[in-house]
Design goal:
- The protein is mainly alpha-helical.
- The protein has one domain.
- About 80% of the residues lie in helices and about 0% in strands.
- The chain is globular, with a radius of gyration of 20 Å.
Length: about 260
């Protein structure tokens, strides 16, 4: 209980600190407005060319709301990889290890604290823009609860992927290349730009197994088309991916700590 209180306070401190940087928040909001406006015209042209009321089971209004949620999820992601990379290179990690805190858990709760500020703001802005551009879509309290249940697992899974890349700083001079690849893969294969239903049928089952769809596509899909069966399947995939990522991180983190000790850190 004491340990949980410590990490909860870390998250609370991160949330308070993040809320102080209003200029960054405003920049992200402006970027989201521009992106949604562009995507509205792209999807409107696509629906017009196909002469269809639905694509991938989504209407034009649902599609824009879907994109607004994927953008909110993506833009609220903290710069975990860069922070871990800097801790390794500057020696700050050696200092962190002297504190009565587990470093991966410390970083996890820091990231969750930042998300607690960034995501609600991005979500509200995205919802407001989508409402103004295409109007509302049907919502229910139950549907929103299904969406909310999936979020913590998506946040944790995304953190683990980014933290894993950050640990690469122990063996690489620069992890920015890995982060760029990871972010682009998440963007494309995770369904940020295009729902997985619009991919070729042979690819859809593969993409749903990959962890990227559980970070972005799954929660956004639940937002526009809530379904208890879909949530149950998503939670299983999220849980399995979290376990795999966590095991890999434990192995690599122990190896990384040994490198610090071997070098007299």
């Amino acid at each position: 209980m004491v340990a949980l209180r410590k990490y909860t306070w870390v998250g609370f401190t991160a949330a308070r600190s993040n809320s102080a940087y209003l200029s960054e928040v405003l920049t992200r909001i402006l970027f989201m407005v521009v992106v949604l406006f562009i995507f509205l015209h792209l999807w409107r042209a696509t629906y017009g060319q196909t002469q269809s009321d639905q694509l991938g089971g989504l209407t034009l209004a649902q599609m824009l709301w879907y994109v607004s949620m994927t953008e909110a999820l993506t833009l609220s992601t903290p710069v975990i990889t860069r922070e871990v990379d800097q801790d390794v290179r500057t020696g700050a990690l050696a200092v962190q290890l002297t504190r009565p805190l587990n470093y991966p858990l410390y970083r996890l709760f820091m990231a969750l604290g930042e998300r607690a500020v960034r995501f609600p703001i991005n979500m509200l802005v995205g919802a407001a823009v989508a409402w103004l551009l295409v109007g509302p879509i049907p919502f229910t309290v139950g549907g929103l609860l299904l969406f909310a249940v999936s979020l913590p697992f998506a946040f944790v899974l995304n953190f683990l992927g980014l933290f894993l890349i950050g640990l690469g700083a122990f063996w690489m001079e620069d992890t920015s290349g890995l982060f760029l690849i990871y972010s682009r893969v998440t963007m494309i294969l995770g369904g940020m730009l295009i729902p997985l239903e619009l991919f070729p049928e042979g690819w859809q089952s593969i993409l749903k197994i990959l962890p990227f769809s559980s970070m972005v596509y799954g929660p956004a899909h639940l937002f526009v088309q809530p379904d208890p069966a879909f949530l149950a399947d998503l939670l299983v995939r999220q849980g399995a991916a979290i376990i795999v990522f966590a095991v890999v991180i434990v192995v690599l983190y122990r190896a990384a700590i040994k490198r610090i000790n071997a070098n007299g850190g």
